[in-house]
Write a structure and sequence with these properties.
Layout lengths: L13 H12 L8 H8 L2 H9 L7 H10 L10 H9 L1
Length: about 90
């Protein structure tokens, strides 16, 4: 659960919602630093990926878009039954 003032940890589907709450709870004049704080809380491969981005002046929206487009996001697997029936035709 998100607590006011706490930078959310990266942990799956709830992360985007918690980032939204975090940004809204941050005073307007400090919001430009949100993405930097979020990058600092990433762990593992997500942290390595974020640290490899050359532009450190990311906005929160661009930060989330880059994470969503990264190879770290699990892609949906094709339905094996449908693929099997298509191959047998």
């Amino acid at each position: 659960m998100y607590q006011v003032g706490m930078v959310p940890l990266e942990h799956g589907r709830k992360y985007t919602r918690e980032v939204s709450w975090y940004v809204r709870a941050t005073p307007h004049h400090k919001r430009r630093y949100c993405a930097t704080k979020l990058m600092g809380r990433l762990t593992g491969p997500a942290r390595l990926l974020a640290m490899s981005w050359s532009n450190v002046d990311l906005g929160t929206r661009e930060f989330l878009q880059r994470l969503a487009e990264s190879p770290l996001v699990r892609q949906a697997l094709p339905n094996a039954a449908v693929v099997g029936t298509l191959m047998n035709k």
